[in-house]
Amino acid sequence: MTTARPVAQAARFVPGSGGHRFVMITEPAGGQAIGTVLWAHAFAEEMNKSRRMCARLARGLAQAGWRVLQSDLAGCGDSAGEFRAARWADWIADLRDEVRGADPDRPLWLWGVRAGALLLPALLETRPDAHLLLWQPAVSGAGVLQQFLRLHAGARIVGAEKATPADRTPAQRLSDGETVELGGYELAPELAAALKQAEFKLPPGAGGRIAWLEVAHTDNAEPSAAAQRLVSGWREAGREVSLDLVHGPQFWQTQEIEDCDALISSSLERVGGA
Description:
There is one protein chain. By secondary structure, the protein is an alpha/beta fold. The protein is about 35% helix and about 25% strand. It has eight helices and ten strands. Helix 1 crosses helix 8 (about 260-270) and helix 4 (about 140-155) crosses helix 6. It is globular and about 60 Å long. The N and C termini lie close together (about 10 Å).
């Protein structure tokens, strides 16, 4: 059992592809960190709903000896720019800069939350030895895009928007090169196209550990079929992979801000500490 250390936190703005990006650093106070954890957050409203849980884990990791970097991607959260101007390649470039800035002689964990996990395979090309901590990860960008489109359709159903028979669907408008408003976020066709192509595939040579965690609100649930399929293939290829299902609220999509204590404790157990 590890002893909790005092924690120091510092917020700063750093240069990025879309202007200054907001970064929160949580680390052991007055001591050398055992390694680095880099965060790739969920998108849109899921980011807002999951921020409290992510802050809780960051503090727990720092108490266990880790230095945790939580950066808001360009056009998201407190970083500069608008979501409509965000570009997939810029997000990856900014995260790669953070990977390069991590101590190469100490362990590195890449922590992906929901759709943020889709950004991680590109980072493994820079640090193949990095480990992965995955919170209910999206495995298909096309599926994430469809979720955005359903938000728009839902708004029409409840009367938030009026449609006419001649209206083009959001998918058609994106295909025609238009930026569309979906669930309160303006999505550019460039980002939609890149997201549609994104898949969670590990690059050759990636050899770190993988901790995949999913949350279920019922006692008889099982890990998703996608998780079981991918994890089975990775294990057959000789990778060290854990797949855990914890019980609690699916906080990234609940109406109110929720906590899932089991996810925090399981994550700390999988990552470990000094």
